[in-house]
Amino acid sequence: MSETHKLVEMLRLTPGRAEYPIRMNDVDHNPNFIRLRTRSVMGILYLLSQSVEVPQEDVEKGKLTTTKYADGRPFYWSNLFSSLFQIKSSTDKPSDAFVSIKYRGSWFYIDDTDVESKRTYALFSQIFAIQAGKIEVERPTLTLPIGR
To answer: E strands along 77-121, which residues?
Structure first.
């Protein structure tokens, strides 16, 4: 069986077609279309937040949720995101940070030499801006007493 036939079978598509148009975020299954469901901005943000290097003191104090396998072993999100996105932490202000913020006595930052993390940050910033859309601002009306 060819790879194409395997893919068609896995996606539960109608076999033998030359084209399968893509439908975004469609909930109904139609075997003539490839259905793509994207993550929400909050879903993306949650996944990226898993790549934060948490200070050991916060881990010891139980200030975060630890993801574990069914057998109790810890799951290391860094194995998934290490080449895509890394947020480092330090007790001292970083000297070479692309972006940084101080929170609960620790500095969290993207290293300026980490090109992949900077790309991911820029991409997420664009996705966030697109999702936010144009916000209408109601401005005050200026009234001038010119009839007096």
So the answer is: 88-90, 97-103, 106-111
Task: Give the full edge-to-edge strand order of the sheet including 106-111.
Answer: 88-90, 106-111, 97-103
Provide the residue count of the chain: 148
Between strands 97-103 and 88-90, the pairing is unpaired
Using CB atoms within 10 A of its CB, is residue 117 exposed (0-12), middle (13-18) or buried (19+)? buried
pLDDT in tens, 88-124: 999 999 999 999 999 999 999 999 999 999 999 999 8
Report yes or no on whether pTM surpasses 0.85. Answer: no
Task: Give the Cα separation of 107 and 55 in Å (integer).
Answer: 10
Token pair listed for 105: 């006595």
